[in-house]
């Protein structure tokens, strides 16, 4: 088995310790999430806290694709995070990634700096009375506009993938996570509104966000609202239909 380990120059002082943690991932750190697909752990070294994401072991065909044809999810996460930061988009700082190969890709890990955030976008979906909700939604629309203006199509733009930190005085910072699926392309209005679909927006949320986005982009509020509603409802209907089919099969 061969190992490929890349470290950001800013964190080379942690290189040896982090490498050891990654090689002994099962017994290192504390679990943040332990899913069927991916596992995230948190580890603290000399007062510095890192999050480590281990991606699901690919099947044989996928492992060969990741070895010879496509970058691993860990490598993409590291590179995309670096690109986002260059463009002024916040994301937990990319620290390192590690790939283990045995024929094809065996497993991979992405390490980022831990961000002490206050909540994620999901609370706005589930809590209509969340403090300052309308203002946060406006700022989230502006944040998404910033992505689009930088030709970033974040394909996993969903409620759990934006962390929100309150800076005080009604100002919020937004951090993207789960970065391995992105396209970098110029987006028209329809494509921009399509990118909102996974956020699972209610009518009230669309009213607020479409108005804010239209003012920033210089487009008609009516057209922006109609497209955001269309793509959101189509996505929600598709997901709900899939869930209904699964329940019927049980």
Summarize the structure in short.
The mean pLDDT is 95. The chain has 8 helices and 11 strands. The chain is of the alpha+beta class.
CATH topology of the largest domain: Transferase(Phosphotransferase), domain 1
Using the CA coordinates, give the radius of gyration.
20 Å
Span between N and C termini?
42 Å
Beta-strand fraction estimate = 25-35%
Give a count of the beta strands, DSSP E runs of length 2 or more. Answer: 11
CATH architecture of the largest domain: Orthogonal Bundle
Descriptive key words:
3-stranded antiparallel beta sheet, 11 strands, 8 helices, Transferase(Phosphotransferase), domain 1, 2 domains, 6-stranded antiparallel beta sheet, Phosphorylase Kinase, domain 1, alpha+beta, 26% strand, 250 residues, single chain
Explain what you see.
It comes from Rasiella rasia. Keywords: Kinase, Transferase. Pfam families: Kdo. This is Lipopolysaccharide kinase. The protein is α+β, with helices and mostly antiparallel strands and 250 residues long. It has two domains: 112 residues, Phosphorylase Kinase, domain 1 (2-Layer Sandwich); 131 residues, Orthogonal Bundle (Transferase(Phosphotransferase), domain 1). It has a six-stranded antiparallel beta sheet, sandwiched between helices. A three-stranded antiparallel beta sheet has the order 7-9-10. Helix 7 runs antiparallel to helix 8.
């Amino acid at each position: 088995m061969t190992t490929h380990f890349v470290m950001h120059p800013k964190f080379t002082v942690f290189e040896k310790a982090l490498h050891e943690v990654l090689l002994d991932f099962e017994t290192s750190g504390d679990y943040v999430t332990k899913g069927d697909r991916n596992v995230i752990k948190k580890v603290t070294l000399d007062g510095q806290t890192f999050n480590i994401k281990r991606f699901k072991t690919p099947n044989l065909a996928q492992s060969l694709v990741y070895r010879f044809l496509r970058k691993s999810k860990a490598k993409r996460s590291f590179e995309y995070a670096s690109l986002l930061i260059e463009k002024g988009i916040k994301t937990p700082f990319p620290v390192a990634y590690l790939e283990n190969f045995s024929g094809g890709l065996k497993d991979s890990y992405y390490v980022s700096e831990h961000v002490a955030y206050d909540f994620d976008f999901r609370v706005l979906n589930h809590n209509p009375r969340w403090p300052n909700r309308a203002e946060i939604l406006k700022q989230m629309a502006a944040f998404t506009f910033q992505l689009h203006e930088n030709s970033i199509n974040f394909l996993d733009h969903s409620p759990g993938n934006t962390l929100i930190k309150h800076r005080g005085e009604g100002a919020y910072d937004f951090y993207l996570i789960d970065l391995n699926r992105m396209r970098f392309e110029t987006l028209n209005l329809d494509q921009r509104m399509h990118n909102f679909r996974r956020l699972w927006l209610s009518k009230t949320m669309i009213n607020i966000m479409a108005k804010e986005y239209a003012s920033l982009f210089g487009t008609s509020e009516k057209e922006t609202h109609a497209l955001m509603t269309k793509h959101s409802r189509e996505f929600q209907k598709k997901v709900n239909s899939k869930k209904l089919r699964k329940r019927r099969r049980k």
